[in-house]
Amino acid sequence: MEQFSQLLVSGIANGCIYAIVAIGFSIIYAGTQVINFAQGEFVMVGAMVAAVLLAKVSLLIAFPVAILAGCLVGAVVGLCVLIPLKRASVVSLVILTVGASLLIRGLAQLFWGEEGRMVPYFTGVTANEDNIFHFAGAVIGVQQIWVVAITIALVIATHCFFKYTLTGRAMRACALNPTGARLVGINVHRMIILSFIMAAGLGAVAGVTVSAGLYARCTMGAALGLKGFCAAVLGGLGNYSGGIAAGVLLGVVESLIVLIIPSMSDYSDAAAFVILLVVLLLKPDGILARKKAVA
Amino acid sequence: MLKLQSVITYYGRIMALRGISLHVDPGEIVAVVGPNGAGKTTALNTISGVLAPKSGRIVFDGSEVAGKSTDNLVDMGLVQVTEGRQLSADMSVYGNLMLGAYRRSAADKKSIVRSDLQRVFAMFPILEDRRTQSAGTLSGGEQQMLALGRAPMARPKMLLLDEPSMGLAPLVVKEMFKIIAGLCKQEGTTVLVVEQNVKAALAVAKRAYVLETGRVVMEGTASELSKNPEIQRAYLGKGYKQMVE
Ligand SMILES: Nc1ncnc2c1ncn2[C@@H]1O[C@H](COP(=O)(O)OP(=O)(O)OP(=O)(O)O)[C@@H](O)[C@H]1O
Ligand SMILES: [Mg+2]
Questions:
Q1: For residue range B150-164, what is the model confidence (pLDDT) as tens digits?
Q2: Do B71 and A172 touch (CB under 8 A)?
Q3: Which of A257, B171, B204, B232 is most buried, judging by how many CB atoms fall within 10 Å of its CB?
Q4: What is the helix (H) or strand (E) element at residue A141, kind and residue range?
């Protein structure tokens, strides 16, 4: 029981990170039909910039700067996708994002080297007793509470943005019907860049949050990007709530699988892909897909 | 208000507009008619910046606009209602109408936009009944009304309408053209309207152009054209009636 609740807690925390990354995938997919494989690198850029800055300045400065850096990289990738958008097929654009991700990772390794950089906990120097809560037999670190709180805040903020702000509505209109959006005077290209900036900003937040208490590495983006991608696809690409649910679920399953198959502990990364395969075979539109009426 | 001079537009290597010249004066309703595939939609899309012309001049409100982007033109007060309606299907009727005011919402007060919304609801009461329904689930005719109702939300100086009567019941078509004439009279909106329902179009328009295979083949006042035997035979169906009799 104790082990179960412990695994559940860490699963939820990891799952939250996948959920944030999944939202990023969906925002860009909705606007462009492109699966942005550079999403994981946005996470890495956020984490690395924060890690480098945290050696000198406090989190209050490092965190916003890391988000800005992520947004900047997102804007550049967005421009790279936008320029050939009309002429190129979606497949070649996806490959372009793969290229962009390799380039970003390469440049990061060139600048920051291979070794991991320590990122301290958001609050508290070490994992001492003050920073730990006991709940249902599980030990919950303050950082895990931060992860969940930040995720909830981001989800609510994203939801309100798309639902209640004019720019959010305009972005949705672009996703639903680009031609119609143009006709009411929305600059579709600007909205596409904005979707990359938002996705990258979210990714950067995920990156800083996930690395706290651990090491940030230039190579960390690939795995997190793929998990987030799995969550986004499981939830149905472009379906935000689906992606969030799938992200948390994925984190939990990945964590709990050790209870059922102890030997999986070394391969828990593979769990995500096995789940993805099985779900896609059964429900190709994602777990939350409603049955669509034949149009 | 609007002037086209020898405008040529291509789709890839297909020449769809073969040098079109026309003009619309401020406060006028001008109709464009012609057979399917004549290039009517292409002409409107070229004016509104959805397509870029290969050559020729387009002057709107005193400035050269050929090749300008659609959002710039909406800013200048030129708004198009397309043949395909182009609504955001998953968004509510209200959401779609508010999107119509997208370019103004930043500058104008909420209360002004809201009073415009009330005016649109007064024009199309059915839209008020359906305000929370998603646009994609409206009937074809209701969608057409929504598309037309969305345009005045931008407070345009000029409207480009592509087949506003499409899919509407005959009685509603009459109502629709009354609303268009009302917009022109009360707000001074200039209108360029493409129509298959030539009779209805000539009834509200002051002048008209006949387009065939990418060229203007005839132009004149609405009353001149509706008396023209060729127009009567090709579009008004009088010849057909005589043939039957
Ligand atoms: N996207 C496109 N690509 C290639 N050719 C096109 C395209 N759109 C239209 N055309 C061609 O251009 C010509 C003019 O088309 P357009 O849609 O302007 O006609 P229209 O006068 O609006 O016809 P309708 O009354 O049927 O709406 C047609 O021959 C059509 O086949
Ligand atoms: Mg047409």
A1: 999 999 999 999 999
A2: no
A3: A257
A4: strand A138-141
